[in-house]
Design a protein that fits this description.
The chain contains 13 helices and 13 strands. It is α/β, with parallel strands linked by helices. It has two domains: 190 residues, Glycogen Phosphorylase B (Rossmann fold, 3-Layer(aba) Sandwich), CATH 3.40.50.2000; 183 residues, Rossmann fold. InterPro entries: Glyco_trans_1, Glyco_trans_4-like_N. GO terms for molecular function: glycosyltransferase activity.
Length: 398
């Protein structure tokens, strides 16, 4: 049989997933000789993705949980596109594209279908009936897959406990970042000083940072409440907020919300940035008081740049740090404890420094993106051999 360049298609809902989370995967498979395609809703970052030699198909996939009519249209658009392009492999990411992409790929007869779980819609405090509904949806989607990758070990264990994935399909592969890019050693003291000046931050002023979309579930309300308390003890402290608005989400926040807390003079909103690696270098503390996460890249990135982390004791966040070693865990939706943790680290810079250095060691050992990419490629090769028509399969006749 004549060899051909394998066609692989990534399915996501929004362009920032490609730009900031999956760009390494796209480049990796492109360099390995695959024809790389992407399905994504329209977005400003798609032009950057095209420059990497990736072909884009714009199909709107709404991220709201329940949009039946729109989802049905997306499903059939995906189906016709998959059938037309005859992909060898379809990879789906995040819940809604995971469901629609897997169903469409199965209907279209794609030989290899792989879903990646970054996190489930349900969590510890989800109402029972709602939780059972989401588990049912995950089970239906998983029936279509040849493999399901988990970035978070706790999600992997949850899937086994709830019997969401068939035996042999689920695989924990971890997550990773470019630890060379997120390395504080890249930035001199002069660079950091100049960066602060460009941001309008005075030298010697404590900086607390967060990198997250402007939605309530990232814990912004609790952070703003906590920051108000922090300013009582450290009145010059700056809160650096990095992340885009997310108007598709019903819990989307407007920057004007900080006026309710009286912290507007000490808060800097930077919006969506491409220099996040540089921005970590100006932070003294990184916070992510999120309600739910798959496996937070921002926590990995902050740790890799020796920034001490404060995050919530929820699935995903707690798996990304070692409590009291590489970061501090605080209870969910608890601004009082969040404020205490921030004040503690600002009051004890030597402890903060020690935590940050331990975070870098953990990143070097566990968060290297190359490990993740190798696992992905190995599994795809294994499935490709299994699905090859040249493989002799034992006869069922006796």
């Amino acid at each position: 049989m004549k060899n051909h360049k394998k066609k692989i298609c990534f399915v996501v809902a929004i362009d920032i997933t490609l730009k900031f989370l999956l760009i390494s995967e796209l480049k990796f498979f492109k360099d390995k000789g695959y024809e790389v395609f992407v399905v994504c809703s329209p977005g400003k970052w798609l032009e950057d993705i095209k420059k990497e030699g990736v072909e884009i198909k714009e199909i709107t996939i709404k991220r709201k949980t329940f949009t039946p009519f729109s989802d049905l249209i997306s499903l059939f658009k995906l189906f016709f596109y998959f059938r037309k392009e005859k992909f060898d492999i379809v990879l789906t990411f995040t819940p809604k594209p995971g469901l629609l992409g897997q169903l469409a790929a199965k209907m279209a007869g794609v030989p290899i279908i792989i879903n990646t779980i970054f996190g489930f819609y349900f969590h510890e405090s989800t109402l029972h009936l709602r939780k059972r509904f989401f588990i049912f949806i995950e089970k239906v989607a998983a029936k279509c897959s040849d493999a399901v990758f988990f970035r978070n070990k706790e999600d992997f264990e949850t899937a086994k406990k709830e019997n969401i994935i068939e035996n042999g399909k689920a695989e924990y592969i971890g997550d990773g970042i470019d630890i060379a890019k997120f390395n504080i050693a890249r930035f001199s003291e002069k660079f950091v000083s100049e960066k602060k000046k460009t941001l309008g931050i005075n030298l010697g002023v404590p900086v607390i940072g967060i990198v997250a979309r402007l939605v309530k579930e990232k814990g912004y309300i609790e952070l703003f409440e906590a920051f108000k308390k922090v300013l009582e003890k450290f009145p010059t402290t700056i809160l650096l907020v990095i992340g885009p608005a997310d108007l598709q989400k019903k819990d989307s926040l407007n920057t004007g919300v900080i006026k309710n807390f009286g912290i507007e003079k000490n808060t800097v909103f930077l919006g969506e940035r491409t220099d996040v690696d540089e921005l970590y270098s100006v932070m003294d503390i990184f916070v992510l008081p999120s309600y739910r996460e798959g496996f937070p890249h921002s926590v990995m990135e902050a740790s890799a740049t020796t920034c001490p982390v404060i995050t919530t004791d929820v699935r995903g966040c707690r798996n990304a740090i070692e409590p009291n070693i590489t970061g501090i865990l605080v209870p969910l939706k608890n601004s009082e404890e969040l404020a205490k943790a921030i004040i503690y680290l600002l009051s004890n810079p030597e402890i903060a420094k020690k935590i940050g250095e331990a975070g870098r060691k953990k990143a070097e050992k566990e968060f290297d993106k190359n490990i993740l990419l190798q696992k992905m490629e190995e599994k795809i090769k294994e499935l490709s051999v299994r699905c090859s028509p040249d493989v002799q399969r034992p006869s069922r006749l006796k």
